[in-house]
Amino acid sequence: MIVHTKFSFNEMVKIANSCDYSYDGLFFYAVKTTGIFCRPSCKSRSPNKENITFFLTSEEAKRAGFRPCKRCQPDLMKFDPKMDLINDTKAYIQGHYKEKFTLQQLAQNIGISPYYLGRLFKEYTARTPRAYLESIRVRRAVHLLKSTDLSIIDICYEVGFQSASSFYHAFQKQTQHTPQQYRKEISYDL
């Protein structure tokens, strides 16, 4: 079963293989050969792509006959007030990724100190709020490179980067390609 999310099958496979906590709750993946389902952040061995299926909820995975992983316990919903702060921070960043804002402004919006927000966010997501913001901007840039004819510099500013050099640096760091190389590669794939 492929779920209807904002991510493609290949993107969800990549997310599951990266063990990224920031995607927990957005979907679950199950491994056909083991009969187990996990959260995207599970540290278990990465399964082969052909053995993965995705679900929006843990209940859907259970109904399909998969059992929860004992390692990541995807069926347990735990109340964690710190996680609410993380989710509020992610929501703010996702809603304002095009804007220029500081950690101070972000923390003020969330209602905690910048130092505590930075430390807490890194503890829960394994990256800084700035790195999370850059990943959203780069993902959006990838989408625009695939789906529009906008110039690379227009895409840079459209997704919220303040300079071309910071855009190129973040894009290459996350995709291992320059924006030009990426656009050329996807045009060859078409």
From TrEMBL:
Its cofactor is Zn(2+). PANTHER family: ARAC-FAMILY TRANSCRIPTIONAL REGULATOR, HTH-TYPE TRANSCRIPTIONAL REGULATOR EXSA. GO terms for biological process: DNA repair; methylation. PROSITE patterns: HTH_ARAC_FAMILY_1 (PS00041), HTH_ARAC_FAMILY_2 (PS01124). It comes from Salipaludibacillus neizhouensis. GO terms for molecular function: DNA-binding transcription factor activity; methyltransferase activity; sequence-specific DNA binding; zinc ion binding. This is Adenosine deaminase. Keywords: Activator, DNA damage, DNA repair, DNA-binding, Metal-binding, Methyltransferase, Transcription, Transcription regulation, Transferase, Zinc. The keyword Transcription applies. SUPFAM superfamilies: Ada DNA repair protein, N-terminal domain (N-Ada 10), Homeodomain-like. Residues 87-185 form the HTH araC/xylS-type domain. SMART domains: HTH_ARAC (SM00342).
